[in-house]
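User: Hi! I'm working on a homework problem where we have to compare a predicted structure to a textbook description. Could you give me the structure for the chain below?
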Amino acid sequence: MVYPCLVTTIEKPVRQSVSLPARLARRVRTLAKNRKTSTNRVLVELIETGIESKEAEKSRFFDLADKLSSTSDPAERKRIKEILARMTFGE
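Assistant: Happy to help. Predicted structure tokens:
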């Protein structure tokens, strides 16, 4: 009997051509060499980390926006507005 929760789905890799600036390509090769892995693996890890970071930043933004709409404390509202402004427009 096959248990659905135990069956793993393996995603088929998709070949994607990406052009990197020379300086960045050197850094990726150096990371791969230091980790004793392939440049492809390093690129995949960096992309995954970047996507997770962007999703976490987006989630934090919406959490703060919800908090802003639910708080009535003027000092807290001002603090949250400043954080949201920095997140949106930079420092």
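For your comparison, note the following. The chain has a mean pLDDT of 91. The radius of gyration is 21 Å. Good luck with the assignment!
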